[in-house]
Amino acid sequence: MDANFAKYGRWIHTLFETSYARQLFPCFDEPKFRSAFKLQLWLYAEYAKPSYTALSNTNGIPYKFNENLTIWTFNDTPSLPTYLFTIAIGKFDHYCCSSELDMDQNICIWKLVNVENHLWYNVADKVCDQASIFQANTENYVGINTGARLHFLIIPTYLNGMENFGLLIVSERLWPRENNKYSYIAFEKTLKHEMAHQFFGNLVTMEWWNDIWLSESLTCFLALPKLHQHRYDMDLSEDSIIDKRWAEKIPRIVYVKGAAVLSMLENVIEPSNMRLLLQVYLSRYYFQSASTKNFVEILKQVTRDFREEAPEFLMSWLTQGSYPLVFINYDQNNQQFILSQTPKVGDISRRWLIPIWIDCAGGTVNETLYWIPKHSDLVIKLDEVTKTNQTAAITFNNNRIVYYGIVYKYVTE
Ligand SMILES: [Zn+2]
């Protein structure tokens, strides 16, 4: 036994997403099948020593059967898909604080004892505050409590994090450094992401991996700061957000473009209706699985009286790769704008239902949302959008989040 092993011991933790739970126990290892887990772990020999702790989705209690065997028994989990079940065993140490929202609920952060840094507890205290505030704000926004334990495991892992139910993992390499605010910001990004998964992914799970956007895009939308400008111009991908191939590997567009499309949806339907949409979705499919169809059904109900284009708009962005370039021409003779679209890359037959906000900088006409149809141009008379008679007074998408490019084909007079 080498010196390091004697001091730090060994540790393991599971990562079952997408379909690795079946390697540990027989199961229906697909996200739509949920089950309550009842776990008992028998730890022998070295691992039976009190210096070892076993962690899972719920609280566990050790029973020292004899010198050679410790039996850990865990509380039953709520109904979970297999990929969110987890076990971790190691020489762990922890720090807990009480939550802002619910004083009875402790937020706990677990780490390996080998992380020997006397400042660790100061940092953990600040991280607890970050987590507590985000949890309170998020529960308030979505109007629901998942009942999940808010424990984090900070451990070396190649992923940034993983949203195991009741034991959210964040990579040790992201752990903040005392008095380095940038390291807190970087850590907080992953912390919030994993916490937002408590609602999207963990509470309501996609029926199958083709709809992974219901987990990752909604999570990014919830965890990202609002009015974040999205860099669509760097996106040359032809992949669509919904695709059955995402059972094997989740592509970057599901995170980045997915969140941007949801921000665009929020602009289209207004923030209060976006919130209502998410609240109805979470409460209707509480501890169940859902599909894109289910989400769009709720969107239809929420928007039918004032924004009936919303479902078709959303689907055109979720089911097609790339994004449109919008060309804006001005017809001098007829004093009208002509807006047309073409895909940035790939199949030139792709078309989107495109929202565009037109505003008069002179304030003579209020900002109005227009739609560029899929199969024809949008023609708008100048006097409909400004009373100044000047094309220079017109702004497009001012302070609006969109995921498409605009090419101006006219020169303002
Ligand atoms: Zn995620």
Describe it.
This protein is of the alpha+beta class. It has three domains: 194 residues, Zincin-like (2-Layer Sandwich), CATH 3.30.2010; 115 residues, Neutral Protease, domain 2, CATH 1.10.390.10; 84 residues, Sandwich (Immunoglobulin-like). The protein is built from nine helices and 22 strands. The strands form seven sheets. The protein has a five-stranded mixed β-sheet, covered by helices on one side. The chain has a four-stranded mixed β-sheet with strand order 20-17-16-22. The N and C termini lie far apart (81 Å). The structure holds zinc ion. The site of zinc ion has 4 residues, from helix 4.
The DSSP helix count reads 9
**How far is it from the N-terminal to the C-terminal residue, by CA?**
81 Å
Q: Compute the number of structural domains.
A: 3
CATH class of the largest domain: Alpha Beta
CATH topology of the largest domain: Zincin-like
Dominant shape: elongated
Task: Give the number of DSSP strands.
Answer: 22
Radius of gyration: 25 Å
Helix content: 25-40%
Sheet having the most strands: 5 strands, mixed
Q: Which ranges are low-confidence, i.e. pLDDT below 50, for 5 or more consecutive residues?
A: none
- Mean of pLDDT: 93
The class by helix and strand makeup works out as alpha+beta
CATH architecture of the largest domain: 2-Layer Sandwich
Which kinds of small molecule does this entry bind, naming each only once? zinc ion
The spatial strand order of the largest sheet comes to 9-10-11-13-12
Q: How much β-strand is present in the residues?
A: 15-25%
